[in-house]
Design a protein that fits this description.
The complex is a heterodimer of chains A (228) and B (513). Chain A has a three-stranded antiparallel beta sheet, with helices on one face. In chain A, strands 3-5-4 form a three-stranded antiparallel beta sheet. A two-stranded antiparallel sheet of chain A has the order 2-8. Chain A contains eight helices and twelve strands. Chain A is of the alpha+beta class. The relative contact order of chain A is 0.19. Chain B has 18 helices and 21 strands. In chain B, the strands form five sheets. Chain B has a seven-stranded mixed beta sheet with strand order 5-4-14-15-16-13-17. In chain B, strands 7-2-1-11-20-19 form a six-stranded mixed beta sheet. In chain B, a hairpin with a 2-residue loop joins strand 19 and strand 20. In chain B, helix 1 crosses helix 3, helix 1 runs parallel beside helix 8 and helix 11 runs antiparallel to helix 12. The chains are: A alpha+beta (228), B alpha+beta (513).
């Protein structure tokens, strides 16, 4: 359940939020949404793929952190998170509502940890970092949506079939994942290519393609876990 | 030099006309730049009959090939999902009497015939539930896919329920804007014929003439070109199928969120049956009956009793129907599609699928010139005679196995009213269940052997089984039935409610991939 309230100095003056990384804070996620602006960081660690939102059926870009449901292979309890943490995980219990920041009071992170306001009632450094984060995330979500719409309209999205076999004999077939259709990309007319380049989309597309090289790494991590 | 066929003229702007125009124009897009034309003449005054709110799954590929967006279909035609039909009270008339004719084939249909194995197990569980999840999905009011399933793709096979009055204008817009079909709003006043009877051109009341090499008659019951102009007769099938009148009414939902069935509910009554089709904004309900067996007033009463409290204040519309088809479907350079070619009671929603099949055949076999047209016509006629005959057999099958006591139903079981081919099949089926037998070897059979299985065993028909004959396929059959049970469980969990998905499609749309 969620219990979302606009952040309010009076009501939430003493509120604290956990900033650590743990499954109990909701970090055990297999696939998390990412925005185009962070592709360069994400691609260095995780495959960037597309999937469909269960509620609307709409495509979104996401980073793959695990193979099985609720599995984040980069997460080790009690240890710091060493790779890049996508903004949608960094945001923790926070949302935006118009230009205001809102918080899900039922989020498992809410309770102990970092204070949101300092003794003078000013936003703490932590809260300031969250406000900064939303300055990137909020327009980034819109930009990414337009990016995905562009991919769709140019017929550049295709399903990707990922079948994995592990040393313990188990197999996984990952469904409902999509990537960039490289043949269709190569066949684009020049004017479209220039348009993609000018909008910065060509870079994003190649980051997505390059990030596919992270898939075998992810599978190796899984293999190592299964062997433990 | 023989004149090529490059101008196709369709007369009539209903569902048949626009579907035919769309299928032909889409297939021959490439030739349009070198002068191939498709023209549709529509009378500004004649109201379209808008027959059929039920369709077959073929419509999905037909529309996809025309380049129609499925999301648009849902948004503009008040469309909803149809996963088959439930036939209630057809066998005994009791409250719990009913069976499904789903659109999914039995599990592993191409590998093994499950009928003898199901019978060997005692046949006490419903045949449908033993071989496909779809009956259970309909029972639960579930949709056949999710919002993440791409356009036209299915998790469970499906067709549509739609508002036929909105469907024709929707197709018109697509045909004229996207496929280059010429739309002429005018009344055909005169027909100019050559010595051999071929139609050369049509003169219009509003002035002007339209010439062409191939004319397609989609003028509905009037059959202006094939029937009136070329004098092709009509072959009635009222000796086999007795229903000759329909009484239709649109029923509002008590609340807009009311459950919407994802199947057609077909209920037997004293002298016919009712259809009950759930569209997002209303239900379409109608009683199809034999006026020889019941008066209009009695029929109206029976219809209103079926609808219940929601019937208050509604006035049904009476529609005379004439079951049968043209003696010839393609004569000279005229071919009839839709009601102009014939009509059958909508028991299995055969109207639109027949239009699709005819349009496809014309588009695929488009004669290059007049010289080869008679060959194409002959083949077209053969195929269509076969199809209409088969459909009549299949519709009659629904009637012959009944135990209902009313005169209408007793008359239906009179052997004199059963076509010979169906009689033979019923005899054969006592010893061998329908599957891939010789009877079902035609390409694009309207109703596959699976449909016959669902109706036969849904109505309690029994085929003698030889246990020894089952030995070779027993383990495969068990495996298929287990798979079906697992799939049923999985789909029941996974699929959304029919109404919820339709609402989501209207709001978010389906993805193209």
């Amino acid at each position: 359940m969620t219990n979302i309230a606009l952040l309010d100095i009076k009501a939430h003056r003493d509120l604290c939020v956990e900033t650590g990384v743990s499954a109990r804070f909701g970090d055990a996620k297999r696939f998390v949404p990412v925005i185009v602006g962070e592709f360069v960081h994400v691609a260095a660690h995780y495959p960037i793929l597309l999937s469909k939102d269960a509620e609307t059926g709409g495509f979104f870009c996401g980073a793959m952190l695990g193979i099985d449901e609720d599995e984040n292979l980069f997460l080790t309890e009690g240890q710091p998170f060493e790779t890049y943490r996508p903004l949608s995980l960094q945001r923790g219990p926070f949302f935006t509502s118009g230009s205001d920041i809102a918080i899900d009071l039922d989020h498992p992170r809410v309770g102990g940890g970092q204070a949101l306001f300092d003794v003078e009632g000013q936003p703490s450094l932590y809260l300031k970092s969250i406000m900064n984060l939303f300055r990137d995330l909020k327009p980034g979500l819109d930009q990414t949506r337009v990016f995905v719409e562009t991919l769709l309209s140019l017929k550049l999205i295709e399903p990707i079939d990922i079948s994995l076999a592990f040393d313990d004999g188990s197999r996984r077939r990952l469904e409902d994942l999509y990537t960039v259709n490289q043949e269709a990309l190569n066949a684009l007319p020049d004017d479209k290519v220039v348009e993609l380049f000018r909008r910065g989309y060509l870079r994003a597309i190649y980051l997505m393609i390059a990030s596919l090289k992270q898939l075998p790494m992810l599978a190796q991590k899984k293999n190592a876990r299964l062997a433990r | 030099m023989v004149k090529p066929v490059s101008n196709v003229v369709i007369v009539g702007g209903g569902t048949a006309g626009w579907l035919t125009a769309g299928v032909i124009a889409a297939r021959h897009q490439g030739r349009m730049k070198s002068g191939f034309t498709v023209t549709l003449i529509e009378s500004p005054d004649i109201k379209i009959i808008g027959v059929g709110e039920g369709t077959w799954p073929t419509l999905r590929s037909t529309l996809e090939k025309m380049g129609v967006s499925e999301t648009d279909l849902f948004r503009h035609c008040d469309a909803a999902f149809k996963q088959g039909a439930r036939f209630a009270r057809w066998t005994t008339g009791a409250d719990d009497d009913g069976y499904y004719h789903p659109l999914m084939l039995p599990q592993g249909f191409h590998q093994v015939n499950l009928v003898p194995h199901w019978l060997e197990d005692g046949g006490s569980r419903s045949f449908c539930d033993s071989v496909t999840p779809q009956g259970a999905l309909c029972d639960d009011g579930l949709a056949p896919k999710t919002i993440a399933t791409p356009e036209y793709q299915a998790m469970a096979n499906y067709a549509y329920h739609l508002d036929a009055g909105k469907f024709a204008p929707f197709l018109q817009k697509h045909c004229t804007e996207k496929l280059g079909v010429r739309h002429v709003l005018a009344d055909v006043q005169g027909v100019k014929q050559a010595e051999n009877g071929d139609i050369e051109s049509l003169s219009l009341k509003q002035g002007g003439e339209i010439a062409g090499e191939l004319f397609i008659d989609c003028t509905g019951f009037a059959s202006l070109l094939l029937g009136k102009t070329l004098g092709v007769g009509f072959k009635s099938c009222s000796d086999i199928l007795f229903c000759d009148t329909a009484m239709a009414v649109q029923v509002p939902y008590p609340t807009p969120d009311d459950a919407m069935a994802s199947h057609t509910i077909s209920t037997a009554h004293s002298a016919g049956w009712t259809w009950d089709i759930g569209l997002p904004t209303r239900r379409g309900v109608g009683y199809v009956y034999s006026s020889r067996h019941i008066s209009d007033d009695e029929a109206a009463d029976e219809l209103m009793r079926y609808i219940g409290p929601q019937a208050k204040g509604l006035t049904p519309r009476k529609i005379p129907i004439r079951g049968g088809y043209r003696e010839t479907f393609w004569k000279n350079n005229v071919v009839a599609v839709g009601l102009a070619s014939g009509f059958l009671e909508p028991l299995e929603s055969s109207a639109i699928v027949l239009v699709e099949l005819s349009a496809k055949l014309i588009a695929e076999q488009m004669p290059a010139n007049r010289e080869v047209m008679d060959i194409v016509a002959r083949r077209f006629n053969e195929v269509n005679h076969y199809r209409w005959g088969r459909i009549i057999d299949f519709l009659k099958l629904h009637y012959v196995l009944t135990q209902r006591p009313e005169k209408f139903w007793r008359d239906n079981t009179d052997p004199a009213t059963v076509p010979d081919r169906l009689k033979d099949l019923l005899k054969l089926w006592k010893y061998q269940p329908p599957w891939f037998l010789e009877e079902f070897d035609r390409l694009e059979e309207v109703f596959p052997a699976a449909s016959y299985q669902y109706v036969l065993y849904g109505m309690g028909f029994r085929t003698a089984v030889d246990g020894d004959d089952n030995d070779q396929t027993r383990s495969l059959a068990r495996q298929q039935m287990q798979e079906n049970a697992a799939m049923t469980q999985k789909m029941r969990k996974q699929l959304p409610k029919n109404r919820d998905l339709v609402r989501k499609i209207q709001e978010y749309g389906l993805q193209p991939i």
